[in-house]
Design a protein that fits this description.
This protein is an all-alpha fold and about 150 residues long. The chain is built from six helices and two strands.
Amino acid sequence: MSESATTVAKKRPEFRNINALTDLPSYRLPAAGIVSILHRISGFIMFLLMPFIIWMFDKSISSEISFEKFKAAFNIGMLGLPGVIWKLVALALIWAYLHHFIAGLRHLWMDTSHEAVSKEFGKISALVTLVVSIGLAFILALKLFGAY
């Protein structure tokens, strides 16, 4: 008998439908998957907050009076919402931009040096993306909320 005939056949993987309520909470998404999902979410946040971005830009450069109104929105509040809420919206925008930019650079790096991409590189670059974007957002949050 040949050697291939005596080896035991490997069991083929079994594919089944998943139940989102029972299977997904126990699924451990790798860091690269988390960064990919957050990249999409950050792009959506920036798209959703585009009117706020345009308003901030307009108020900050139109005149000295409009700039004072801009500052007052973050210090006192506006439209019945306290200034802290507007600062949190701005912080969400800051994080979204930083994460989207850094994750985009990660994707560009992987696209241009595809021979160097491995599972280990994907994991490390995803962790670096998360740490850098959250770290920079934290530093800018301290500035936004007046810590320095």
